[in-house]
Amino acid sequence: MTTDLPVTTSAQQLADRYAMLWTESDPGARRKAIERLWADGGTHLLHPPVEARTAAARVGFAEPVLEARGYEELEFRVTRAYEEFVAPGGFTFRARPDAVRLRDVVRFGWEMVPVDGGEPVGGGEEFVVLDADGRITADYQFPGL
After folding, report:
1. First-to-final CA distance of the chain
2. What secondary structure, in 3-state letters, does 25-46 show?
3. SS3 content of the chain, % helix, strand, coil (to 5)
4. What are phi and psi of 97, to 5 degrees?
C-alpha cells in the first residue's frame, strides 16, 4: 500500500508528532494530523483511571476499556482532551525522550506539564502498533506517572 502521507522514520519522531497532536489548537490541522498518524479504522484504547475502574467494578465490569475507533471518534477524543487540559492555558503535553521501536510496535512516555514550567502533573505510557505505511492501527494508552 502506498500513500502520499509521510511515513514516520524514527520512534522519537512518531512520539513527538503524537504529543503535538494533543496540543493542536486548529481543528482542521488537528484532523489532518490524526489522519497522518492513524490508519483508517485505527483505534485508541485507554486504560481508565482508577476511579473509573472502581466505579465499573461496582456494576460488574472487571476490566473496563475506553475505546475510540476511526477518525471521527479519534478526533472527538483528542478534541475533548485539548479542550479540558490545553485550551484553558494551564497545561501542554510533550513526549519523553524515551521512544523505542521493536518491529511494528513503538513504546514511549508522555507528560502533561504546566505551560509556565515546573514538574509534570500527569503522564503515562503509550504502546502503538503500526501498519506497513507507519500509521497507527492500535494505540494502547496507560495514564499514570
Report:
1. 37
2. CCHHHHHHHHHHHEEEEEEEEE
3. 35, 35, 35
4. -85, 50
Joined grid coordinates for residue 110: 508522555
Lookup: cell for 142? 496507560
> CA-to-CA distance for 126 and 107, rounded, in angstroms?
6
The Cα 21–Cα 15 span in angstroms is: 10
| Rounded Cα distance, 36 and 31, in Å | 9
Cell, residue 145: 506517572
- Residue 121 C-alpha cell reads as 502533573
The 8 Å CB, 24+ separation contacts for 29-32 are: 30/75, 30/78, 30/79, 30/82, 31/71, 31/75
Tell me the three cell numbers of residue 73: 471518534
User: Which residues, other chains included, contact 57 with Cβ-Cβ below 8 Å and sequence gap of 6+?
Assistant: none
pLDDT, one tens digit per residue, over 76-120 is: 999 999 999 999 999 999 999 999 999 999 999 999 999 999 999
